[in-house]
């Protein structure tokens, strides 16, 4: 604490020793204080590095009169405030992150995704938020380098997932905020693909708000940014997303052309490691195209959606819920009332089970 008290006086060690000598003369104190002795008091070490022995009584009295504190207090370690202690702790924790821990965090993210797609955001949303907060602390206190980039990827993916969950739960403002945080993280990943993907997903918040023109413009811009260096699966997904936005804007011909582009781009192999997480296969693409066809009241929508429903992995509960709502929409347009009632009942049951406010709102309009 002695050195800290000297700094608070805005004095160097040399200036303080001169002041102490002057103070001793003016106050009839017999104690003296050389620069070397002061340095030893501060370090707590003697001339050969051994622990410093007891301070001479006259020197102790001199310092106590100057500072108004006991010699024990002056020679104690400087107090460390809670914020400084926490900062040092988190910097130290972040330095210890290695490949094994990064792999563990990625594995936890994959597990949360599985829970989410099968049981819905009503179960998984809070867990995603907690995990995002944990990774955010590690990311914030990590220094530039590969570890920080990898943490940025995980953080981006967590907020992207949380954004989609919040949208499904009917929390549009919170969804928007998650996507904003995802975009910030994406800029630190070192990969433009993550920036494109997070911005494109945010377009679905605009669609839910009825801002179809803005959503179309945003997705068009993201497709323009996605050059041949971007993963082919992402480019296929962007085309399909653009098709949905065009469908919402009531542009059927342009929408179906976009879905044709998506089908042509759809790769046989899944996306390579290090790419944004995208779930898109021929089944999901049919499901997406069927959604557009149903919005146009196209008579082929029932067939496309029914085929997709039969081929869909049953673990994709949220996807099944949305598909059944689309199928109900198509059946209503086709005038198939009996099949419509059965499909609406099934869709309502699933929407309530997974807490999908988004799909319940669509069903309420039927």
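Q: What amino acid sequence fits the structure above?
A:
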């Amino acid at each position: 604490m002695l050195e800290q008290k000297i700094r608070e006086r805005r004095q160097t060690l040399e200036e303080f020793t001169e002041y102490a000598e002057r103070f001793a003369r003016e106050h009839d104190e017999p104690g003296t204080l050389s620069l070397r002795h002061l340095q030893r008091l501060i370090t707590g070490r003697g001339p050969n590095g051994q622990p410093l022995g007891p301070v001479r009584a006259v020197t102790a009295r001199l310092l106590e009169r100057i500072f108004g504190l006991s010699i024990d207090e002056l020679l104690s370690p400087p107090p460390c405030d809670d914020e400084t202690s926490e900062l040092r702790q988190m910097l130290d924790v972040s330095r210890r992150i290695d490949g094994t821990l990064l792999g563990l965090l990625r594995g936890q993210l994959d597990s949360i995704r599985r829970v989410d797609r099968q049981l819905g955001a009503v179960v998984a949303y809070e867990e995603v938020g907690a995990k995002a907060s944990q990774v955010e602390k590690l990311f914030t206190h990590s220094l530039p380098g590969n570890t920080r980039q990898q943490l940025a990827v995980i953080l981006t993916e967590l907020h992207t997932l949380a954004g989609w969950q919040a949208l499904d739960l009917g929390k549009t403002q919170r969804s928007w905020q998650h996507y904003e945080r995802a975009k910030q993280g994406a800029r630190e990943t070192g990969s433009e693909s993550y920036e494109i993907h997070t911005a494109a997903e945010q377009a679905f918040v605009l669609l839910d708000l009825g801002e179809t023109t803005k959503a179309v413009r945003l997705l068009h811009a993201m497709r323009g940014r996605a050059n041949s260096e971007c993963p082919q699966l992402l480019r296929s997904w962007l085309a399909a997303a653009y098709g949905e936005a065009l469908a919402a804007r009531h542009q059927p011909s342009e929408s179906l052309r976009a879905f044709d582009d998506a089908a042509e781009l759809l790769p046989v192999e899944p996306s390579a490691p290090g790419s944004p997480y995208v779930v898109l296969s021929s089944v999901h693409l049919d499901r997406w195209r069927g959604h557009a066809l149903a919005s146009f009241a196209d008579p082929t929508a029932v067939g496309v959606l029914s085929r997709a429903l039969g081929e869909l992995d049953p673990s994709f509960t949220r996807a099944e819920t949305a598909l059944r709502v689309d199928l109900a929409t198509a059946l209503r347009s086709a005038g198939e009332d009996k099949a419509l009632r059965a499909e609406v009942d099934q869709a309502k049951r699933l929407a309530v089970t997974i807490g999908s406010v988004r799909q319940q709102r669509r069903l309420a309009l039927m």
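Q: And what stands out in the fold?
A: The chain has a mean pLDDT of 90.
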